[in-house]
Amino acid sequence: MVRKKARDMRDGIKLSKFGAGPSFPRVISVTSGKGGVGKTNIVGNLAIAFKMLGKRVLILDGDLGLANIDIIFGLNPAYNIKHVISGEKDLADVIVNGPRGIRIIPAGSGLHELVHLSQGEKLNLLNEFDRLDEAFDVFLIDTGAGISSNIMYFNIAADERIVVVTSE
Hints:
By secondary structure, the protein is an alpha/beta fold. The protein is built from 7 helices and 6 strands, in the order αβαβαααββαβαβ.
């Protein structure tokens, strides 16, 4: 199942099914055209709400240049997605436990090299998802702001997208 989905994504079709479970996770990205509108807070609250419903939740901090999901949960991870992309760590090695058992893939803040991932780096990251042994019911992606190629990539990978806006 997982390998097929990863192959589909490599062929331009969205990635939404991974993990070892018998069913596929619901993949939801939370995105916006501008920063400071509350995307990360919404992701955090959605994760807690899903956990309260008994769901197994994974969050990807997809704001690769200005990550902060770890900050709102009071975490200080030793490793982040940069270590996965560079090949230093496997994805499973950087996933940390958040509140209520929420699993989190932290990204790095202020890491310019993460802002513009190459197609090869994106495919390597996809392969890491393919290798995950842990199953999830819900996969939340906290994207950065705007329409960069990384953000569009994460949004295309999602089954559902929540676009956060303000009245400004």
